[in-house]
Amino acid sequence: MVTKRSAKERLRRIREKYGLSPEKFAREVGCSGSAIRRYEDEDPRIGRVPRTDVACAIEDITRALGDPITPRDWCS
């Protein structure tokens, strides 16, 4: 059985693969670098789910990079 990675892990891997800091990725998405770090954090006390508009922007960027993270992916 293939286990799908979490949206948090996928976001971090994609961002790092393309050499983007949280701040650079955040500029493209329209949020802060600290927000990106919270979206990637696995600790449930710190980690957050992006607002719908930010999740849609993340989907647009990750789709262009070949591994779309949809807003629904944040729910799992």
SSE blueprint:
Layout: H1 7-17, H2 22-29, H3 33-40, H4 52-64
Helix pairs in contact: 2-3
What's the quick description here?
Helix content is 53%, strand content 0%.
Characterise the protein shown here.
This protein is mainly α and 76 residues long. It has a single domain (7-75), classed as 434 Repressor (Amino-terminal Domain) (Orthogonal Bundle), CATH 1.10.260.40. It contains 4 helices and no strands. The protein has helices spanning 7-17, 22-29, 33-40, 52-64. The longest helix is centred in the last third of the chain and has 13 residues, at 52-64.
Distinctive features:
434 Repressor (Amino-terminal Domain); 76 residues; mainly alpha
Compute the number of structural domains: 1
Query: What is the CATH architecture annotation?
Result: Orthogonal Bundle
Give a quick account of the main beta sheet: strands, pairing sense, barrel closure: none
Counted beta strands: 0
Give the CATH class: Mainly Alpha
Q: Under CATH, the topology is which? A: 434 Repressor (Amino-terminal Domain)
